[in-house]
Amino acid sequence: METLVQQLLDGLMIGAAYALMAVGLTIIFGLMDVVNFAHGEFYMLGAFVVFQLVGLQGLNYFLAVLLAVAAVGLLGVIVQRTLIRRVRQSARLNYLYATSIVTIGLSIFLQNAAQLVWGAVPKAIPQPFPVEPIILGSIAVSPVRLFILVASMLVIATLALWLKRTLAGRMIRATFQDREAAALIGLPVDRIDALAFGGGTMLAALAGVLLGSAFQVYPTMGGLATLKAFTVVILGGMGSFPGAIAGGFVLGVSESLAAGYLSAGLKDAIGFAVVIAVLMFRPTGLLPAVRRVR
Amino acid sequence: MSTRRRAAAGLAISVGIAAGLILLGDAYLMRIATLGAIFAILALGLNLTAGHLGLFDFGYVLYFGIGGYATALLTLRAGWAWEAALLASVVISVAAGVVVGVVVLRLRGPYFVIATFSFLTVAYYVAINWRDVTNGSLGLIGLPAPAIELPFLGRVDGFSPSGALAIAVTGLLVAVGVVWRVVASGAGRAWHAIRDNEDLASSVGLDPARYAFLALGISAGLGGLGGSLYAGYVGIVTPEIFSFGHMVNVLLMVVIGGTGTFLGPLVGAFLVESVPELLRVAEAFRLPIFGIMLIAAILFAPRGVVSLRRPRRTRPGRQLGSSVTGDPS
After folding, report:
1. CA B164 – CA B151 distance, rounded (Å)
2. Is B134 near chain A, with CB under 8 Å?
3. Contact predicate A84/A99, CB 8 Å
């Protein structure tokens, strides 16, 4: 029983970070129809910038997290302004094909650039959290994992509130529902794209910082992360925010249970088996988006 | 020059270069040419779906890996002759393409991209974890070198660099023949019609699903052929055969050569195999340069190097699902 609760807690912690990534991917996909193959590399960059600032420069951890997320978000905006927008404006390119290839190229570039800068050896981010686990009855929770869970939930809740209440949030939701209609009523869809791509990459970076604090940081960590984000998004229903959040927790918990009760090697395969099952029997995902599929 | 004559000229030139290399006897150049020929088969296969039909199969090297593993298992475990294993690998790959198609062909656009990519990843993890069959990450080692009877050349042994090149080029010629036939046939015209406007194509009675299965099946078969040749050439099959690195390589060949053109993937394959060799001095920067090349190619030469010299024509506005480059040739 204790093991089960322990596994569930671990799953929730990882699931929260998956949800963060998947929400970021959903914003980018839902708004811009871009399948962002470089999502995991923004995740990796977030973790490495924090490692650089805290581990090498000795900055305060929480300040470094904020700086890293902002820096990666800025990079995302630059990518949208220079690359993605160019593809959208070009009539000679198939948008889906060209954006996929641009993000694949970007992911190879960022991954190898990180390897040149920081080397291939896995790094650990020094953290301010105590090492001793918090004991609740017979369950042990490490403070850093608790922080991951709480921080992810807080950010997702804030984002949901922001999307619901603010003018920018309403503009994003309008563009999300129908891009042409949004442009027609005069919304600056191009600037909304930049906001969405920057915001999406910030969420990826934050997920990278959080999981990188609990595990290790290395240049190729983004590859698997991109896959996980895709998995979650298919699982929840592409273009659906509640689906992305639910899918993150479902994947995190099922991986954790699979690692505990089946085998650790199968942990990474289980998500993809679930994805193929979902695609076969329920291609719209668990919580499909109401948005018109184009 | 017509497309056909250009293609024939290109082929003649590449066969001539291959023959010249054998005469030169430079084992290093022959190795590059052999890999170029094998990957050209894959580039042709990917171009069938991505270029001619507009279905962006980002998990295409799945069939490369299936062909490789099928060949390795049939020769090592079942003791089959290499030729029989090669044919069986192609058949198995086609079957795999049809099975995958049942799932992915119901999906469109980005959903198709993500689903095909997921299949490739599942295969990678299955290959690592299904140790009884695949021997895990260590892979299957010691495949017998291929050997076949060829017209004019007699019995060719894959152990020698020139023999391996002859076998790879033979495979490439078969692939070129197949692609040439189907693209010029009614099926090829149907693919282009579906790629350019699926609704219009089905309104005149073309069945997109049927033609998509055909394209996926043939491209899977070519992938299996390439994988089988590759496995025989390098003599070892590991889960890395399913890696996204191979996918990027093949994609780069198609993009750089010219998506949806006939000659492009062939030119692209030999370019991508040889240019990194020239970049050997900058070994550490090789992969980052690859990434930049991919972005630059799609932004600045979206129709590939084979059409660089032609003047650009103005095209009507983009629409989702329209042709990759706007050029229906």
Report:
1. 15
2. no
3. yes
Amino acid residing at B284: A
pTM of the predicted model as reported, rounded to 2 decimal places = 0.83
The token duo for A100 is 């996929």
What pLDDT is stored for residue B284 in this prediction? 66
Q: Which two tokens stand for residue B274?
A: 């040889």
Which DSSP state fits A290? Answer: -
- The answer to whether the Cβ–Cβ distance between B326 and A116 falls below 8 Å is no
Query: If pLDDT is split at 50, 70 and 90, which confidence band does A1 have?
Result: low
Q: Which residues contact B109 (CB under 8 A, 6 or more apart)?
A: A33, A96, A294, B320, B321
Instruction: Please give the angle made by the CA atoms of A37, A40 and A46, to the nearest 5 degrees.
Output: 140
pLDDT digits (tens, 9 = 90+) for B291-324: 888 888 888 877 777 665 544 444 444 444 444 4
* Size of chain B, expressed as the number of residues it contains: 329
Residue in B50, B24, B22 with CA at minimum distance from that of residue B321: B50
The dihedral through the CA atoms of A242, A246, A251, A256 has a sign that is positive
* Beta strands at B140-141 and A139-141: parallel, antiparallel or unpaired: unpaired
What does the alpha-carbon distance between residue A43 and residue A25 come to, in Å, rounded to a whole number? 11
Q: How many angstroms separate the CA of residue B291 from the nearest CA in chain A?
A: 4
Compare CB distances from A268 to B125, B287, B316 and report the shortest one's residue.
Answer: B125
A20-34, A93-107, A273-287: lowest mean pLDDT where? A273-287
